[in-house]
Amino acid sequence: MARRTKEKEGREKRGEGKGEARKRRVSFPLSSLPLPRRACQTQSVAIVGAGRLGTALARALAACGYHVAALVARDVRHARRAATLAGATDAARPLALSAARLEQLPPADLLLITTPDDLVTEVAARLAEVVGTTKRVRVALHASGALSSDALSPLRAHGVAVGSMHPLVAVSDPVAGAESLRAAFYCVEGDRRAVRAARGIVRDLGGQSFSVETRDKALYHAAAVLASGHTVSLFDIAANLLARCGLPEKRACEVLLPLLGSTLENLSTWTPARALTGTFARADAATVRRHLDALKKLPDDEPLAVYALLGRHSLRLAKEGGVADARALDEIARALAAEENKRGG
Question: Model's pTM, two decimal places?
Fold first, then answer.
């Protein structure tokens, strides 16, 4: 008995008591916990386009209680792999279909089209021929960021409520993407019944939805590309500059990632004008000139062009911040304009 008491005391000193175990249990990320099951769990969904996004959506929806009835891909082998990754039990595993077998698509409450943008309208027309007249589907949503719900007009003509539901996340892997889709922001638009269904899906995934006018869908998507895809391109340019300084490519990325992370942290707290730091925020004209001189020596003029273009916008943010010296900002503006005029001339 005394021995067990001493062992217990030793565990408590090492932080192995009940309280510590409880702390460890609740420290897991919220996204790793199952979402609450709701009445929506009886809803069925068929997904046409079993790529990364379609598979990630299938996995995320199955995790919160939806019945994924079918997954469609050009190649049935891809559909089968997606059905496996969806994570459903064997009894509830989605039907895997090739695109040539759309007539076998089972009835579903929701139809999600997650094909590439240039195939959405074509797929909608084919689906209208197959499921539109039989009323096998009540609501159809596509996941394109650039296209509006009008891309599904062939289905709308058959009485299907149509809309779009675009997740503002980067999905590069179905498994990790399924986690990202939970608690993400989604842009939804379309027919009233379709928008209501889309918002229900977003709530069930633990996300948040917002809407834009149908006519503004392409502009909305351009904003998303600037914030995500173009950020990757900008990071690549910066990493290549560090590689020219002698750092291995992998090391260059490792060095820059914490800097990018701290910038995102600032943006999560402050306005862009307040979050701006560094050379332009300080209006350090001499440093800008040194940057321009170094960039002009490169065989590729792309980094210089990007620096000058974004520099002009950084100047506007610095002026908005109201801290930097106005004369120094004007001096920087003239230096950037001179470089742009040289390239233009």
Answer: 0.81
